[in-house]
Design a protein that fits this description.
The chain has 379 residues and is an alpha/beta fold. It has two domains: 202 residues, no CATH class; 161 residues, TIM Barrel. It contains twelve helices and eleven strands. A nine-stranded parallel β-sheet has the order 9-8-7-6-5-4-3-11-10. The two termini are 36 Å apart.
């Protein structure tokens, strides 16, 4: 293990201790650090005083004009600071991910850092941002997934050139004073979203003797079909490994996090997202399973399972819905899921999304579970 990786893994273990905020006495739990057998200092249990509190946010929430956007960013971050939000996982933050004619990420970083908040620009590897789409469809149409079912165009993560392209985009983000890189849609599309283009099918056939389209059964009753699904998952893992490598080579303490589907075993087979393996290999520092439900029993089951699946190799920040396509939560529901996350040993939490984290949601969180937030001194 390199010196940079050793320092990075140590940093993950103590990462939460920098966070600010407290909760009522009834929710206090112990905080401990213990050495892991692989030399990793693993956070076993976080206390409400030190937990990571995040929110998914996007440049699309703000005005296209810089002056108006800055005022909106200031108001939004001040609102978040009131409940101890200390991590911003930001979509469409990079210049080639949005249509603004000014540097949104630079502005967000300055505003967030003065409030003690960490910023993690988000990359969605399978997604075609408008500027990426123009470049790729014109210059590299062979990089697109060729589905057996009609689906929106997306990048084929099984291709080495595609993975190299995405790693290069992440490398561009390292020019900024960022605190982390966040991955979302780090997978293939649902519903048989793997690619059946000539190059991908040929690569699989060279290894296994038959191409995926030559298989009689396209379901898990076929052992070779199961291998096809696992083979695709190995390429997604290779991409995560490549992103981790470029971060480590930068020599900076930049965390790598990923928003993932709730259940590892299902995600591995259906969309090629084997996040258990990412944790086991030490490829990610934080996993954010997207547990968007109003059913608290289900939420607890999957949060507990995520903590167990990570096995102490990385931090778990459950994704809690405010309003999503999966569930529309209530202020009381948010509070209960925060309590559940703490009870089962998660190390933090992330709300989806920023546009709805206001009003009665803020008031209820502050009154019930984020009852004391230390004043932040701006620098």
């Amino acid at each position: 293990m390199s010196a940079a990786r050793s320092m990075k893994r140590l940093f993950v273990g103590v990462f939460i201790s920098t966070f600010v905020g407290c909760a009522s006495v009834e929710h206090e739990v112990t905080y401990d650090l213990a050495p892991h057998e692989r030399g990793v200092r693993t956070l076993l249990q976080a206390s409400p005083e030190n937990e990571a509190r995040g929110v998914w946010i996007s440049s699309g929430y703000f005005d296209q004009q810089k002056n108006k956007a800055v005022a909106e960013i200031e108001e939004t971050l001040d609102r978040f600071a009131g409940i101890g939000i200390n991590n911003l996982f930001c979509f469409s933050a990079m210049p080639d991910q949005h249509r603004m004619d000014w540097d949104f990420l630079d502005v967000l970083l300055k505003q967030a850092h003065t409030r003690g908040m960490k910023v993690h620009p988000c990359f969605c590897p399978g997604h075609l941002y408008p500027k990426w789409r123009e470049q790729i469809i014109e210059q590299h149409p062979q990089w697109l997934v060729k589905n057996i079912k009609e689906k929106p165009p997306s990048l084929n993560l099984a291709l080495p050139d595609v993975r190299k392209f995405i790693v290069g985009k992440v490398r561009e983000a390292l020019r900024y004073d960022i605190d982390g890189i966040h991955l979302d849609a780090i997978r293939f599309q649902t519903g048989q979203g793997f690619s059946y283009d000539e190059a991908t099918c040929r690569a699989f056939k060279e290894r296994y003797g038959r191409g995926p389209l030559e298989l009689r059964w396209h379901n898990c009753g076929s052992v070779m079909w199961c291998e096809w699904m696992r083979w695709n998952a190995s390429h997604v893992t290779a991409l995560v490994r490549g992103i981790k490598d470029v971060i480590e080579k930068s020599g900076r303490d930049i965390l790598l996090s990923a928003a993932v589907f709730p259940d590892n075993e299902s995600a591995k087979l259906l969309v090629g997202q084997d996040w258990r393996k990412w944790a086991q290999e030490g490829l990610v520092d934080i996993l954010c399973p997207m547990l968007y439900t109003k059913n608290h029993e289900v939420f607890e089951t999957y949060t507990r399972r995520a903590v167990e699946t990570a096995g102490g190799q990385c931090l778990i920040y459950p994704g809690i819905a405010i309003v999503t396509s999966h569930a529309e939560n209530t202020p009381e529901g948010l509070v209960e899921q925060v309590r559940i996350s703490r009870r089962v040993g998660a190390h933090g939490l992330v709300f989806f999304g920023a546009g709805k984290l206001k009003g009665e949601f803020i008031d209820k969180l502050k009154a019930e579970v984020f009852t004391c937030v230390s004043e932040r001194k701006r620098t």
